[in-house]
Amino acid sequence: MSDRDESQSDALEAAHRCGFVALIGAPNAGKSTLLNRLVGAKVSIVTHKVQTTRSLVRGIAVRGPAQIVFVDTPGIFRPKRRLDTAMVRSAWAGATDADAVVMIADARKGLDEEAEAILARLRDIPHRRFLALNKIDVMRRDKLLEVTAAFNAALPFERTFMISALTGDGVDDLMAALAEVMPAGPWLYPEDQISDFPLRQLAAEITREKLYLRLHQELPYESHVETETWTEHRDGSVRIEQTIYVARESQRAIVLGKNGRTIKEIGAASREELAAILEVPVHLSLFVKVRESWADDPERYREMGLDFPRD
Ligand SMILES: Nc1nc2c(ncn2[C@@H]2O[C@H](COP(=O)(O)OP(=O)(O)OP(=O)(O)O)[C@@H](O)[C@H]2O)c(=O)[nH]1
After folding, report:
1. Are residues 102 and 215 in the same domain?
2. Which of 57, 71, 130, 222 would staple 247 via disulfide (CB 3.0–4.6 Å)?
3. How far is the CA of 12 from the centre of ligand 1 (A)?
4. Ligand 1 centre and the CA of 106: distance in Å?
């Protein structure tokens, strides 16, 4: 490297920015879809079923000199079970640690009760606040100004963006604004890293997504997927063994399906996506086990990166 190149790269380094952005929103507002678009790869799992995001997932985006680390939070809702309480706590912990917060809301719903509950909590968070009104692709534009005004009257936002996480409309403006407010500092991750979500967990999330997509009406949230083994072979392929835990014997039968047909389909869909993401051939074996009341087992919480709520 010549002296000139070196001083240029030093200057670039000095201009670096890096920070954390928390995405906060009601279940189904579109957080995961937005995160995937911002990061440009599938790091958080999107399904039609509400409340599928159980763990904090970080996606990392680079925009000019800024590296933005996104914290995808579980949807904020009224906690009923122990697991719900843990998720809500973890969501707000993520927001408190961040440099900026983006509240994402389904614009069609306007300022409903759920949105108001989130605004009430956001009021106490001292960060830069941005509002992203999502799903404008399925909404009348003249209504949007009204919704923007209602939100900002309840809690002033630094800026409001009208976006469609699905089509990408407006997302670039949001990203540029976030890049601008990231604090000066060195990047925390190598440039090509999109997520520090461990691959095993990502693989479990992908199977869980396929499980929900295939059985969404029939399967309660108590089901859970764990990656048990991960073996990389010399020919470049990966063998992955996963267990799907369900709460009852009757659910096990549903997941297996007649002659094991359902689980075969789930496995095939998951394997295909894993192979596409990992860019190597994948051999996937799925097992189904009954484990009652895992939702009260502290160990499961630790695995998901959540604190176990004692109260
Ligand atoms: N039409 C439209 N649908 C969207 C848009 N963004 C998200 N969706 C859909 O809304 C649903 C929920 O999206 P997610 O990204 O899973 O929402 P989430 O907020 O992460 O949900 P939880 O994981 O439950 O917290 C999915 O069916 C998405 O395809 C959008 O801009 N336009």
Report:
1. no
2. 222
3. 36
4. 9
